[in-house]
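Reviewers of the previous submission asked for a worked example of the structure-prediction workflow described in the proposal, so we include one complete record here. The input consisted solely of the amino acid sequence. No template or homolog information was supplied to the procedure at any stage.
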Amino acid sequence: MSPIVLLWKWDGLAVVATLAAAALYTAVHRARLGPRAAYFAAALALFVLALASPIGTLADGYLFSAHMLQHLLLVLIVPPLALLGLPEREGREGRASPGGARSLVVSWGMGVGAMWLWHAPTLCNAAAQSEAVHRVQELTLVLMGLAFWWPVLSPVHAARIAPLSGMVYLFTACLSCTILGILVTFSPVEVCSVYVQPVDRLGILPTLRGGWGLTPARDQQIGGLLMWVPACFVYLSAILAMLGRFYREDHATEGAQGGQAG
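From that input alone, the workflow returned the following structure tokens.
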């Protein structure tokens, strides 16, 4: 087994943030802790995995593909699991409004923009070279991911997007992610040049380049494919869940109308 899998790093800020989130969740929802708490626990575990495991180590200037995997976890996996872990409530029913439409556009733009923004070459390189920029990147990815998934998985039922609109919301996000993934995969220019000649502070570069065969070009292609294929599977799963919700709500409406007619 390669020693690279043992390259966990101590990330005190991530640990403190995780413990604080767990404590706050327990304090607020103590009386309503149930099966949904497992989702929140999974979100926290994957958050630590993304930052402190070998994924975080390799993403820190070694492999663009690990950097991409870290981003997918922080935007597409951790936020929806965290929202699924919140207790549901009905809330007030509200009509669609121009303000609501603008809010959806902003949420969609933040979720999609999280990937496009941080893969602009200047910001991508800065995040790999500066600890402060990297921390800002991690924070904004999670927050932008939460903003994107809120209309889809809000614990307040009335705040959720209608199923058919939600499918369009998710499909267009998948399309945007696919376009970026294709551009990264087939781009002849390095998206993040810092990954071409990384500073080998841990002495693992010969293993990555020679043992694993991860040349800079292949590494970038894998990163692009991660954004292209697995990311769209996440969106597709959410679209199928939306479709199921649409049929459930449609049948419930038909049943209510049938009961009133009877």
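The radius of gyration is 21 Å. We consider this example representative of the routine output the project will generate in years two and three.
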